Amino acid sequence: MQTYEALRQAARLGGLSLNKVSRALGKPESYISSAISRGSVPRCDTMARMADVCGYSLALLPRDKVPPDALVIDPPPREG
Predict the structure, then answer these.
(1) How far is 1 from 10, CA to CA, in rounded Å?
(2) Does the reported pTM lie above 0.90?
(3) 58-to-10, 37, 74, 78 alpha-carbon distances in Å
(4) CB neighbours of residue 39 within 10 Å
(5) Do residues 36 and 4 touch, judged by C-beta distance below 8 A?
């Protein structure tokens, strides 16, 4: 799953819109939507704050320890 796809799902499961998540971060309502439109990827600390607003934690886990209900962000394809 892509980064913003995971955020959308976390927000939905938390009963929030992306606009509400943006506001909770102290940003304009369009903050996340604009970032998605630009094709940008959030920094880890920003993603952790967005996840927290949605009631989630951003964590690094061994692959064999990931719970089945986790929202997993796939790594980008390898270059070369």
Answers:
(1) 12
(2) no
(3) 11, 23, 13, 22
(4) 7
(5) yes
Question: Of 66, 71, 59, whose CA–CA distance to 7 is shortest?
Answer: 71
Calculate the CA 75 to chain-centre distance: 14
In the DSSP assignment, the letter for residue 18 is: H
**What confidence tens digit (pLDDT) does each residue in 21-43 have?**
999 999 999 999 999 999 999 99
Task: List b or e across 53-66, with b for residues whose CB sees 16 or more CB atoms inside 10 angstroms.
Answer: bbebebeeeeeeee
DSSP letter string, 30-69: THHHHHHHHT----HHHHHHHHHHTT-------GGG--TT
